[in-house]
Design brief:
Elements (H helix, E strand, L loop, with lengths): L5 E4 L6 E9 L3 H8 L10 E7 L5 E10 L10 E8 L1 H13 L3 E2 L4 H8 L5 H12 L3 H11 L2 H25 L1 H4 L4 H31 L1 E6 L6 H9 L17 E7 L2 E7 L10 H15 L3 E7 L10 H5 L5 E6 L16 E2 L8 H11 L14 H14 L6 H4 L1 H19 L5 H9 L6
Parallel strand pairs: 1-6, 7-9, 7-10, 10-11, 11-12
Antiparallel strand pairs: 1-2, 2-5, 3-4, 4-5, 8-9
Helix pairs in contact: 4-5, 6-8, 6-15, 8-13, 13-15
């Protein structure tokens, strides 16, 4: 497939001032020579030209740029044709190229070719998609840093550390006198502890980087009529959920993506938690509430500050085992001014009027540890976290005596850790993994 010449529109769908059609592959020059009127001999020089279809009829007028491989995005000869951003014009240009022995590119195929040509590693390839999808300035900057190699460089240093420890172990096994040396175990265990610290530090940063890219999950839970749907609407500043005084209105989880203080957040409004439920639909809604809580980074447990109904089952303590809990008391606006409120620990708000909501947002960001995102240097993904945890688990339980008593087993643990880290950059990637990653790209990238 990499011997094919591919073509696609590289700009977003819709109409605009400029649209770009991109060609890449061994026949890119041959195809381009028939659809433009200028000679493309000089790399990275912009030329003004007419664009023609496969029969030689004019499609449009614009600019064309030739990027000679291997000094191009894909490592192949690449032609970019800049014309008016009308989908009809762009479609005609793509059709002309396909009639001249190119084929339509698959999603992410240009970036996949860059990866396979060694222009970028897999982490950087994923950062391209993260950069395009970024929903905040912080996310853009972290994706740019990953694309520039910050994350990959840290991973590569850790790989070299794991390999160095393994090499020293294997050398010591071959020369048994080294293992019995009094300095051997302290030296090796010191290297081991330093590596573990680096792995755990990277995991903490990568976890924040992944959340910055993919978004934090915030679940609003609590008894019926506590004002959960109204709070959702207040936080996203839009009427996304139905608000009603009738108990049990929300039957299914409502997911809304938004930004709180420039942090991407997925807010989930859930069915009210109660025991006296007869409706099978509401029971299913409560079941889904617990499923959402299992995956949450933070749960707002919302209570009605005016409620005089006995608490009954303590759902709040149930949920503590599942996620971080932030207790919030709602409906301050319903309290008479003369009423003295005996405040418990928690945050007090009125989702209706907005009183206290700013303080709630502060607490949400603090519980997400999102203030640390100022120092997040790179974007990351869930598969990176899995690989880092796999590497840590492989060597975390190793004790100092193991370096002397069973260096062969320790060396094997380090081999496993090295392999886990190498999965991040793509050294040991399956075709299924690559297919899954690049299929989520847009077609022109």
């Amino acid at each position: 497939m990499l011997t094919d010449t591919i073509v696609a529109v590289a700009t977003p769908n819709g109409r605009g001032g400029v649209g770009i059609v991109r060609l890449s592959g061994p026949k890119a020059m041959q195809v381009a020579s028939k659809v433009v009127r200028v000679e493309l001999s000089n790399s990275r020089i912009t030329n003004y030209t007419d664009f023609l279809d496969s029969k030689g009829d004019k499609i449009d007028t614009g600019l064309v740029v030739f990027f000679k491989g291997p000094n191009s995005y894909t490592g192949e000869n690449v032609i970019e044709m800049h014309m008016h951003g009308n989908p009809i014009i762009l479609g005609e240009m793509v059709r002309a190229c396909c009639e001249l022995d190119a084929r339509l590119a698959r999603p992410g195929e240009f970036t996949e070719r860059a990866f396979r040509a060694g222009k970028i590693n897999l982490v950087q390839a994923e950062a391209v998609a993260d950069l395009i999808a970024a929903q905040s300035v912080k996310a853009v900057r972290s994706a740019q840093n990953t694309l520039e190699g910050h994350f990959g460089n840290v991973v590569e240093k850790l790989i070299l550390q794991t390999q160095e420890i393994r090499y020293q172990l294997e050398a010591a096994i071959d020369f048994s006198d080294d293992v019995s040396s009094p300095d051997f175990i302290p030296h090796m265990f010191g290297l081991h502890k330093k590596l573990l610290e680096g792995l755990k530090s990277l995991l903490a940063s990568a976890t924040q980087g992944a959340k910055l890219s993919e978004g934090f999950k915030l679940v609003i839970a609590g008894p019926p009529n506590a004002g959960k749907s109204m709070l959702l609407n207040r936080l996203v500043q839009s009427e996304r959920a139905i608000v009603s005084s009738e108990a049990g209105t929300t039957r299914d989880a409502i997911n809304v993506e938004c930004r709180l203080r420039d942090i991407p957040v997925q807010i989930i409004d859930t069915a009210g938690l109660r025991e006296d439920v007869e409706s099978s639909i509401e029971k299913e809604g409560i079941k889904r509430t617990y499923a959402a809580i299992e995956k949450a980074d933070l749960v707002i447990y919302l209570k009605d500050v005016t409620s005089t109904v006995p608490a009954g089952r303590d759902y709040e303590s149930d949920l503590v085992t599942h996620a971080k809990i932030l207790t919030v008391f709602n409906k301050l606006d319903k309290l008479p001014e003369t009423n003295k409120l005996e405040k418990n620990s928690g945050i007090y708000i009125s989702a209706l009027s907005g009183v206290g909501v700013a303080n709630l947002e502060d607490a949400i960001i603090e519980n997400f540890d999102a203030s640390n995102n100022e120092n997040v240097e790179f974007s990351a993904r869930e598969r990176h976290l899995i690989a880092l945890k796999k590497a840590i688990n492989a060597i975390d339980a190793i004790e100092d005596v193991s370096f002397g008593a069973s260096p062969e087993l320790v060396a094997e643990d380090y081999r496993e850790a090295t392999g886990a880290l190498q999965e991040i950059g793509g050294e040991y990637s399956t075709e299924d993994l690559l297919g899954d990653i690049f299929s989520k790209f847009c077609i022109g990238k």
